[in-house]
């Protein structure tokens, strides 16, 4: 912050807010780029979805990442990722769970913390771009 902005901020009682570093914004960006037709899952978000599930109800969890109704499937995979089908499941009891949004979980459809790996990869990619 330059000197004149600092002086103005101090006169206002230090009411200036500071922006987050761009590194954090890039790592936690909620938007994800996608391609026309993919054979691999695309992360829909960086953090899992907290969802209340009803016992006995049938759900289809989006495994491709292209659905507009995340974390559930809306049929978009038929055009954008025909080789990936949704994971269908029926919970045994009513409960609130974290459903995976990064699509890298080993315990589909539930989150197992794999999103930390996705976030780490985003940070590394961002840093490599800075230091090219």
Could you provide a short overview of the structure?
This protein has 132 residues and is of the alpha+beta class. The chain is 27% helix and 12% strand. It has a domain at 49-131.
Task: Based on the model shown, name its key terms.
globular; two-stranded antiparallel sheet; 12% strand; 4 helices; alpha+beta; CISD; 132 residues; iron-sulfur; MitoNEET_CISD; 27% helix
Content of β-strand:
5-15%
Structural class, please? alpha+beta
Q: State the distance separating the first and last CA atoms.
A: 26 Å
Summarize the amount of helix as a percent range.
Answer: 25-40%
Q: Can you summarize the main beta sheet? A: 2 strands, antiparallel
Strands of the widest sheet, in order across it, are: 1-4
Count the DSSP helices: 4
Protein name: CDGSH iron sulfur domain 3
Domain Iron-binding zinc finger CDGSH type: 46-83, 84-121
Cofactor: [2Fe-2S] cluster
Pfam families: zf-CDGSH (PF09360)
Secondary structure layout:
Layout: H1 3-11, H2 22-27, E1 49-53, E2 59-61, H3 77-80, E3 87-89, E4 95-99, H4 115-130
Antiparallel strand pairs: 1-4, 2-3
Cofactor: [2Fe-2S] cluster
Organism: Pundamilia nyererei
Protein name: CDGSH iron sulfur domain 3
């Amino acid at each position: 912050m330059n000197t004149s902005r600092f002086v103005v901020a101090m006169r206002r009682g230090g009411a200036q807010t500071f922006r987050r570093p761009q590194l954090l914004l890039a790592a936690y960006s909620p938007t994800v780029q996608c391609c026309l037709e993919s054979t691999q899952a695309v992360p829909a978000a960086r953090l899992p979805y907290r969802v209340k599930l009803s016992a006995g109800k049938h759900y289809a969890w989006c495994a491709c990442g292209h659905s507009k109704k995340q974390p559930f499937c809306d049929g978009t995979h038929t055009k954008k990722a025909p080789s990936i089908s949704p994971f269908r499941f029926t919970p045994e009891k009513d409960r609130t769970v974290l459903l995976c949004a990064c699509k890298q979980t080993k315990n589909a459809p539930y989150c197992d913390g794999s999103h930390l790996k996705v976030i780490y990869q985003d940070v590394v990619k961002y840093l490599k771009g800075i230091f090219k």
